[in-house]
Amino acid sequence: MKVTYQNPGFEHSIDSILLFQEEGITPFWSDSLMYFYPQIDKEVLSSLHMEAKKEYITKELKTIWTGLTDEINGKVELYNALFSKYHEQIEDALSDAFGIDTRSIFNDLVGNISLNPVCPRFLEERYFDIFYKNSERGALGMSLHEIVHFIWFYVWNKHFGDSYSEYDTPSLKWILSEMVVESIMDDERLASINPYYPRENGGCVYGYFQDMIIQEKPILETLRTMCKGRNITDYMELSYQYCLDNETEIRNHIEESEKKF
Length: 261
Hints:
Order of helices and strands: EHHHHHEEEHHHHEEHHH
Shape: globular
Oligomer: single chain
Structural class: alpha/beta
Largest sheet: 4 strands, mixed
Radius of gyration: 19 Å
């Protein structure tokens, strides 16, 4: 398992940003754009159709991109160097967590450094985005989160025999995958190199999972208990059934939380 970071160019950033400016996207996902780029007017943007949105965002961000070219190219080197430093340590930890030899899979993952403050991943295409404002340590922490998803769904798919089309939001399988990252990150070999772990440092999962209470107990603590002492597929089965049993409460909490950035 290996990640190679690259500068995919300006057009990639625009296309990535537009994924979160489509109709029906909640403020939790869409509004970070205006937070980091206040020159983009939310009311103006929301009044435009998609092609016009692309033109508007391109116009507003082109100058920023031009001024960042050297910085982003420099971060390609920094991100790759830090990942290489901890490559074997990460593989050892994830091999133990998932009960497989991670050295033989996903050696072609790509981290695209982007202007997009939201960092989508593409499981079948084997790449994900990293916001350029991340330090190399921040990029490593974000990457660990994404790598867990790639391997989680690799094992999940082999165990359940379902489809990769079921692994994106708003699927319950996607929701579970976002939550389990913390219990896997508990391994000291991963926790020690992730600046977002533990929660006091911001957390390695979305904030609305950190304060989600189900059956009078924080859901992340429930998942952590389920994870301990079990092999990964048993954990998958047990945790997914738990989410199915409590799906209404889980989705209600997320819906309410995503009304604001």
